[in-house]
Design goal:
The structure is a homotetramer of 437-residue chains. Chain A is of the alpha/beta class. Chain A has 14 helices and 15 strands.
């Protein structure tokens, strides 16, 4: 798939309809500015040698000519899925940029995620302006509310029609962005022009072609607090294991960085690297026998091949992951309690506390830049894209590309290598599972 | 029971053995200084009218004459039971005061609680001095380690003998102080002089005759973080209930103050005030029907009459409390899931994170004062007592008095009244339990 | 002066006008409940022996009968003077208690302190209700704004008349409470009934007859951060002195508790204890000569006898204190720079950061209780009083008593003794000043 | 200058001396792996079209063959210059990697910066091992101590000889790295092989060819706290200006990101963008006349053309920058005090508090990775280089390149554009200075 997928409405029409950007800027971005995806010169050279353009993203930023008339354009914002630090910062940045940079006057905040775009729920949107969003960055959660799962695309487009929305900012994860793509497709089908701009929200940092997602660093910061607690607990009594369950359904970045941030983690278990209970128990046994404690950080999606399969489904109808956290907790207890005097297993699950708080300073600044760039993209007529960042630049990434696959830890790459180096855990904690509960 | 129980060795003997306090102090405390227990003038007057001394504690602080020779006295410190913010501060304060104020040279830190006093475990004590304790206040947990449960008193006295301990500082809760009392009794029986000074450690703030215990304010601070998270979660989606389980086995002070500190708590459930599932469900149902969320803070020891009885026993052989947290979580889910679309129950249990971190500034200052006063008490030949605080003064409280009953929230008092006023919860959430699971 | 000064309107009239308290409470307080001021049994006994009532405060809390009709009463709130953590908590608590406990419907927030009560400034008051005050406790500062200095009392009463204010809640320090007293007097003179309830605000914790004031603990917490920084700086280079200027115009409680909270402070300088530059320099010289660093915490009002007299006046026309912080900084530099290679003096003044942030959990809970009790006092017809706390109870203290003198550190008391013990500084750093700049 | 400067000892000799890397790694880096400097495909293509290699850095990471024998190699670590969050993390990471990954047994920590390498000062180095560095990441500052300014290179080499140092890790800024380069040159001159590996420390984030330096994000986080305080102060009283002085001698990145992180900053003044007092005063006057407050964040090196020239010199003999912070404070007061009733100027200088604390979680993880990669570089025989990061990879950058120029904000680039957009300040605050004090 090419990154160079069309991100705008018909470019000819765009040419005719252009307004002057009312914003003062020293750095209007030209439409042909790009950011290389690969930083390895050999890869870039190879592409060029074969006469191909090396993979690259459109550079984000304000354009000299914009597509929508700031005086009449009507914008909508929606926040979907689980909470993530920085949601209010992004909402605030979009509202401030629309009003203060472009003079936009009509901004609707749809309530409770995509439910707010389905008229059947009867949620009325709120009017957003600078006064409403002042200081909301100090609050966690989202002032718009959220919900999980999809809504019928026709219903959603009907609501957007009812409010005359020209630009929709959809802040949410993988599923949300797919929904945003579907809204775009449906509008195209109906011959309705709409700029759909996604701001990717994934506390797991697992969106491809995007270096880092907002809220991730805040999450690592909070995760470290739990790991410090786990360490303090486990060194304070003998025969102690502390187990911290962190977020990370398909990608273990939070657990990995938390292990790097506090190298008192002894085992980091992530979805990308299989392990067996036998392998883990044997290694734990060795530590305990040396009179040592153990701190384990486990990503929620780790070890799905060793847990009893889940039967619950989520709002979108997918099979829910089994809970490796409580499973490990129970198995470790069951295995070690009979063997070791006063064996202690402390289990810490900080998930809600991690995701529901306000963003740290870095993430707040990052959210502001995402919001600014989302507005620039929307006002310039981009659509069907998300705002990304790569190599210290902000980029436009087609929704289909961003949702094509998940970003995951490479078990053979430098990140995992450093996690192993930091924890000192064996590279192989049992590759094939033979556990029978 | 009289507070005026003897806190010292034989006073005549003490008189003969007195050394001059090497400490520079403007405020040497006289042995007859007291702090009134009751602040209601009617109560005090009534006692005096009947010719009785009103209940009062001995005032803590440095004495002009001390009992032990600083050059030769040998001291021990032990930390017992669950972690509590400030343990290292107290250890540090005792070491700094012994060395810098009195010039004491022999201080042993016994490892892993009372296990460290039982030779069978083979734990060697560590030597404590100013260098070892520098900066330990920045770490959570206890550098000495801890353990739960009692050890045979003869074994413990044997170890104290082996190291020639004259003063034992026992930092721990109810059980620890009873153990300290037993050590004192056994030493008396053997005709061995030992100063046993307790520093009461109870994150639940449930020790009687003591206004506040160290770590409690830090715990409330941490608890608020979880409540903010619970609130952010529950207002961000519809039909949401957030449940925060806080510490508080017999006394709900942490939950109560956390509810006051963040008046976004809608229900505060404590051990002192019974409730029924029906009562709670009915009130919850009303809130949800009005489109409102709910935040519940529940102390771990609440509702013991409505949970299935526990069969687990702890290290001391007592029946463990049932887990009201997970019980409530499951019951609420089971009750509301079928009734309400996308009903959400978020469960947060921050216990380990709360108790294992370092103390906040107030608690650090408080721990320093406790440590100083413990040393003054020990050096002056007090024994069989704990250091307390009352009415802005530090006091000496006999161990038997401090461990005679727990301090609990008065359901008819001003604290609970203000909690009800802050949460808006009904005073009666079902007084008699009729729940059949 | 007797504490038993009349706190209410004419009691007979009060008797006739009483409404039933609409609040549900298990603990309506009787009008004769008192809290003893002295906790020393000898003092109390001596008073009784002489046939006197021992000094005691009226107990705060809800009364069964209230004076004002909740349906028609009109209330005003004003915040005055410098910022203090918890101002918004108190405003919020008063609004929540008036509306949710009593059903009061008219609450005005006067803007910018007493300026808002002087019509000449043209500040319009804001209407306060539960929605406006939701979440304001997360913000520092005061949503009402503030100003320093008095306004003409007739003008203020005129404004209160214009808005028909029956109860005025005045949150502020010494000067503010004196102003509140003046408003009460002027209303009496005019035969106008008004309940004037003060909530004492002093980050310095220097109001007499009140155990602790809101914001103080938060201030100590923040102050510790600066002291940790000062310590880290001074141990990282040789020949280093770090100087932290803390708040404390007349009373050094913040500096004293900060020194206890982080016993890395080597010198604590407070207004209550004189010192000379010679004395300080000599002691510093000894530390530096031993290869040691030094951390100094100085209260802003310390050493006023050794600084060049200030000529600036403040908003109230009083001579401003000289700035001991920058004076000491310059004198120390001047003295030691020529003598010591690469001598470093780091100066840290965290005042604005300390006072402008939100309250910590303890202070938030405390502010809620103050606000509740202020509302109970006002609704029950108390006037000319402030809400205090003493011995773990909340109290009513006449304004004249609370403003009669400042609470200060007793240089011969246990607090200063422990500060000296913690810092290790000499008790005497030069008692008579002979410094000639 | 070419990035491809030789980073190792003579490669032939290196070839012969190679040992096997004892570390388990899935990702040994080949010596020809590179990271592109430019991410603009047009720039890369242009270079290739001209037959040039595009600018690229050597990729960092463990090598299969290493130069030094882990059993005998002797390593030294030194920390220089002003404090920066993360110094202890880097020290710790180097020690842990040397001991745990390579089994190195001799590690010396030289005290007080380059002073510790000059025998005349008599500072003895400390032995570093895993026990010593455990938990030091929780402390701010540097456990090794630091100093500013250079020392004679011959003296330093003599000390390195005396301790038989094979690898020197120099953690410090621009001047430190130049000193490290000089040590390398002198060793070359003497025919002595030494691996000199720099870890660039600049809280200002102003080292070229390096995406971000450790401590920078922590600094932004702390800076935001001061800005929140400044905002709270200035909105709480009328006619208020708050001025926050932040670090940034030549580059205003901290001020810029702090302005993005909390978009309550109204003016961000940085060294890269000139302004005049007249321009600033005029804009301030307009805000105040509209009844608005103002928050100003000024980098310490801003406005050097409008301040009276400094005459002080620093430890290295350079002219010190004038203090724009206190200058602006005084000028603003002087200008506005006479004009505006109760005009308030609050001045906040959080510098020491910002730089002396521990690193946040992101910076801790980053420091760990820097430390690991520094050790890999040193063990593999690299020298005369610093460890950098670029495009999500870690790199080797020649010292001469890293110290060739400073990284600065581009006044015409996207960062400054977004700062202007966030603050709303005029792009031109007076371009030519005409101020006469």
């Amino acid at each position: 798939m090419s990154v160079e997928q069309k991100l705008c409405f018909d470019i000819e029409q765009l040419g005719q309809a252009r307004f002057s950007n009312p914003m003062s800027s020293a750095k209007f971005v030209d439409d042909d500015e790009r950011v290389l995806y690969f930083s390895d010169p050999k890869v870039v050279k190879a592409a060029l040698d074969q006469g191909q353009e090396p993979l690259a993203f459109e550079l984000a930023g304000p354009r000299k000519k914009i597509y929508f008339n700031p005086k009449t354009v009507r914008c909508g914002i929606v926040t979907c899925g689980g909470l993530c630090p920085g949601l209010n910062d992004v909402v605030r940045a979009i509202v401030l940029s629309l009003t203060q940079h472009y003079g936009v006057q009509s901004i609707y905040g749809f309530r409770y995620g995509y439910e707010g775009l389905n008229g059947e729920f009867g949620h009325q949107p709120v009017t957003l302006n600078t006064e409403v969003v002042n200081n909301i960055e100090k609050l966690g959660g989202t002032i718009l509310g959220s919900s999980r799962g999809p809504q019928p695309v026709e219903e959603m487009v009907k609501t957007l029609d009812a409010y005359g929305i020209d630009i929709l900012f959809a802040i949410g994860g993988d599923g949300t962005q797919k929904g945003a793509g579907a809204i775009y497709e449906e509008c195209c089908r109906q011959g309705r022009e709409i700029s759909v701009i996604g701001i990717p929200k994934t506390i797991d940092n697992d969106i491809s072609y995007i270096q880092q997602s907002f809220g991730f660093e805040t999450a690592v910061t909070q995760a470290r607090n739990s790991i410090v607690a786990a360490y303090n607990e486990s060194v304070s009594t003998r025969n102690s294991v502390s187990l911290v369950r962190l977020m990370g359904r398909d990608s273990g970045f939070i657990a990995a960085y938390a292990a790097l941030a506090d190298s008192h983690v002894n085992y980091c278990l992530v979805p990308e690297v299989p392990f067996t209970l036998e392998g883990l128990f044997q290694s734990l046994e060795e530590r305990l026998s040396r009179g040592q404690h153990a701190v384990i950080a486990v990503a929620e999606g780790a070890g799905q091949d060793i847990t009893p399969p889940s039967t619950e489904t989520d709002a979108s109808g997918n099979i829910k992951y089994s809970d490796i956290g409580t499973f490990l907790r129970d198995q470790i207890k069951q295995h070690f309690k009979p063997k070791r005097l006063k064996f202690n297993l402390r289990y810490i699950d900080p998930s809600y506390t991690i995701r529901s708080g306000p963003a740290n300073a870095y993430d707040s600044a990052f959210c502001l830049l995402l919001g600014h760039n989302a507005v620039h993209a929307g006002m310039s007529g981009r659509t069907n894209m998300v705002v990304g960042n790569w190599s210290n630049d902000f980029t436009h990434v087609p929704i289909v590309l961003a949702t094509s696959k998940r970003k995951r830890i490479d078990p053979d790459g430098w990140l995992w290598d450093n996690v192993l180096a930091a924890t000192g855990q064996p590279r192989d904690l049992g590759s094939a599972s033979s556990y029978v509960p």
